[in-house]
Amino acid sequence: MENDNELRELIRKAALLNAVSHDGKAQAGAMVGKVLGEKQELRSRVKELSGVINAVVNEVNSLSLAEQKAIVEKNWPETQKKEKVEEKRLSPLPNADKYAQIVTRFSPNPDCVLHLGSARAILLSHEYARICNGKFILRFEDTDPKIKRPSLKFYDSVRQDLKWLGCKVDEEYIQSDRLPIYYEYTEKLIAGGNAYVCECAPEEFREQTLAKQPCPCREVPAAEQLERWHRMLGGGYTEGQAVVRVKTDLENPNPAVRDWPALRIIDTKKYPHPRVGSKYIVWPLYNLAAGLDDHLMGITHIIRGKEHYTNMVRQKYMYDYLGWTYPEAIHYGRLKITGAFLSKSKIIQGVKEGAYTGYDDPRLGTFAALRKRGITPEAIKKMIIDVGTKSNDVTLSWENLFSYNRKILDASSERYFFVPQHVELRVLQVPKTVQTKLPLHPENPERGFREYTIAPEDEGGVVSFWISKKDTEPLEPEKMVRLMELFNVKVESKTDSAVTAKFVSESYEDVRKIKVQLIQWIPKGAEFPSQVVMPDASVTEGFAESDCKKLKPDAIIQFERFGFVRIDEVNQKLIAYYAHK
Ligand SMILES: [Zn+2]
Question: How far is CA 220 from CA 183, 193, 282, in A?
Fold first, then answer.
């Protein structure tokens, strides 16, 4: 090639442009095609070319996205059309104009903390209420004191999670306060011959229903049904002896719809409800309580997973009996997050048994855990809105969420150095005192700097630093390294606990063209002992730079070349939680 430098520059430009449009990671594969497209004469030298490309791509990828952007913006501003703000919009709600006010709801059972699996129901329901100038209702569905037993602490954690997600609740209801209302409508349904008290054993009932046959109770006249109903309320039956059923078409193709159970008895002496104790023994099941409430609370649009489709079919019978119109229902597909741990029962059990440190254990997909790790609610919201209300299943990965989060944090987070598993680096022959100013944010110098004075100790010009053990691994005598934003050194010797190197020069330009490793450093004496709790709950010990002492809990920063972290505690030690690269 007539000019290898020119070629290298061409590749470097292509790699930087590729990196900034791919979340900071240039793809070597994409480069080859690009370069060959522009320089056809290189086709015979593909092998050699890919070596150069790999080296350049590695160099480019060792920079942070913000640094890459800064270089591109400086050298090739014409390539960076101002990114069009392409906000994804939600598709309009069906029949929105039919209603004076749009009302949506989110209705969790407070039997566990919320996790990412609820994000879609919460954020879509809330977002629609906001864009339609409507109302967003939070309804606690806590009517199972036995199996899916609610717990007082979770009512509060749900409220806290919604607040964190930026969802303003306009009205809040708790179903365990509303039992008299459910009783009133049940009585109406029974009196109208549209519901009945079934005394059959469950297996008998199942057999009859599968055969599309009515059970004997179904034919009992309403007056006697009402007596049975009052007997239920008065404690005349024990658990399992009677259940109220809503009549449906016995020919309905789905046996699970036929004469669905609406209320049952729970021995609240044995299983007291955390809010109302043993005040009630007749408890509504999901379809009765949710179905009545959706109408009574004026819900116009129900936005929920398609696993609820059959519930709509069930509830529509009840709506017909009461002369009501069923709300608009949008059933979206399942949103799977690969690798996210979202089983409620396993979360509760794991916390109870101590397998997790709490509901905010970094291994969990709970909002509390995401919050602790520095995943922003904005990132979750953006991801959910982008997916929208599609009815097909969508599978996302943690990396998808991180990518949304990275874009937000990259623009906002302050940068600091962190040296995991510190090893001493002695640099000899540093010719003078160096005042270094490291920007808190590479694109926004106005945000300030961390300033360190690197002063040689004695005649020999010795300066001691901490660097990370991992960064020492590829080092060997004669190898050049650049201490990020400081100076270039050449390694002289290395042991397990220390590296000695010699000062070479200050300018980055001197080493940019050879594939030189950039490493972060902390001057000896400016170290702040730190712990980073990793996503697998392991702890990485190391030194952060002393400027981190002024950070406040909840700040999210980037430890350069290590990852984004959320500061949890700043005391004798800094404790942080790792978000992602
Ligand atoms: Zn029966």
Answer: 20, 9, 21
Cα 317 to its chain centre, rounded Å, is 38
State CA 78 to chain mean position distance.
35
Q: Is the pLDDT of residue 30 over 80?
A: no
Contact criterion met (CB below 8 Å) for 149 and 155? no
CA of 313 to the centre of ligand 1 (A): 21
CA of 235 to the centre of ligand 1 (A): 19
How confident is residue 514, by pLDDT bands cut at 50, 70 and 90?
confident
Neighbours of ion ligand 1 (CB under 5 A): 198, 200, 215, 217
**Ligand 1 centroid distance, CA of 200 (Å):** 4
Contacts with 264 (C-beta within 8 Å, 6 or more apart), sequence order: 239, 240, 242, 243, 244, 282, 283, 285
Whether residue 72 contacts residue 79, with contact meaning beta carbons closer than 8 Å, is answered with yes
> What are the Cα distances from residue 406, in Å, to 22, 76, 305, 337, 556?
12, 24, 28, 18, 11
Cα(56)–Cα(35) distance, rounded to whole angstroms?
A: 13
Query: What value does the mean pLDDT take over residues 436-447?
Result: 91
What is the Å distance from ligand 1's center to 314 Cα?
Answer: 18
Distance, in Å, from the CA atom of 565 to the CA atom of 563, rounded to the nearest integer, reads 6
Handedness of CA 393, 395, 400, 402 (dihedral sign): positive
State the Cα angle at 377 between 358 and 368, rounded to 5°.
Answer: 5
Under a CB-based contact definition with an 8 Å cutoff, are residues 409 and 541 in contact? no
**How far does residue 224's CA lie from ligand 1's centre (Å)?**
13
